[in-house]
Fold:
Amino acid sequence: MTDVMASPRAGRVRGVRRDGIASFRGIPYAAAPAGPLRFRPPVPVPAWGGVRDAGSFGVAPPQLPPGPGAPSAWRPADGLDCLSLNVWTPDPGAGGLPVMVWLYGGAFKHGSAGRPDFDATVLASAGVVVVTLNYRIGFEGFGHIPGVPDNRGLRDQIAALEWVRDNVTAFGGDPANVTLFGQSAGAASTALLMTAPAARGLFRRAIAQSIPDACLSPAEARRATAVLAGAAGVAATWEDLAGLSPEEILRHQDAPLPEPATGGSAFTPVVDGDLVGGPPWRRLRDGAGRDIDLICGFTHDEARLYTSAVPAAAIDLPAAAAALRLPERAVADYRTAYPDRTDPELLTVMMSDALFRMPTTRVAEAHTAAGGRTWLYDLTWQSPRLGACHILDVPLAFGNAASPLAARLLGTPPPPGFAELSAQIRTAWTSFAATGDPGWPRFDRERGTTRSWNVPATEGAYPLPASRRIWLDVVPTE
Structure:
């Protein structure tokens, strides 16, 4: 490894070059959201003198461990100085390289750009500048507080995109050729920012991998804050809530969730009439974001990540349908549409549709109907452990076969086909970022042309028409 320098506007930074790629980590793009800036929109970071070391990732945003026995990306001693980003570039001295900006998933509750799963060395080797960033999550990022702008996490993302616009030339990138891409919560953020007036002009292309429907109404957001504040024994005001430490907030953050806890988040993007006007397909259908090229898609067995651990005897399809806010007839409709599926398989199909597939499909259809250029995909390649489950697309897109996530889903070493499929997806993503063409026909509402990511990749009609018919009938688009 050798040192390498770059000069963004706030001051010089020193990164490292490894395997032909220069990386700069932990660069602040906004001031620490602490003290009087707690629960406030991001503000510019002060300039620094001399050379700032950029060899280590910044602090993760406050969060709990993702599961029992798992380590947390954040510890109380880390504090709140979490608004930083990381840059991988083939050549800081180059000019005009395409730029890809990554938003992590995690149900708006977990996530850190410092995870080894998001190391962009392999992706950047295709000739693109890759930026990954931290944004506030949970109540810190999305809790509704009277008198304070909502959606601070989205505002963090916009601030990072503004940093890219103003600074990426110092790393060899073209600020006029930025592709925003993300998975799950990061995909929802990507779709929402396509329609946000404050993000207009900050990116020209988008890749949204597994878009959830993740918007709270103002009433739901107010209730969630009231429940958290009540559990913490304070008033639902900025003064009282800002007086709580991050760990106190986290201790009560799941209080608004129904019992038993669903594993989701009570704090997600809020319909504020400014950044968020509702589910992203609403504004997309009206033409917002029409000028942004979009790839979106889903994994074929999204919900297997969650259903694989559910004993067959414990599956109650009517209860699951009710939890997913589907009408009573939905179970019968699914049984008719998929007569050869067992109840565990039907649960996976139903949850995959409700959580990710239908929200993603609605985004594709709305963007296409408004005249936007859209490409749709279905990841059908089967991993040896959980099939084509949620988040399988992340190691494939980044090409990190040895990351902790890849080891969990794929085993070690990865199975045959991973390297070939990963190379195909990375080629499509980086070609799209460079030229606007991922290499397969665009989606249209009549034929529903969809890329099936497998070995080999193919194109065909929309892959689950029976599910689409059910959702058109029992859950009409708003």
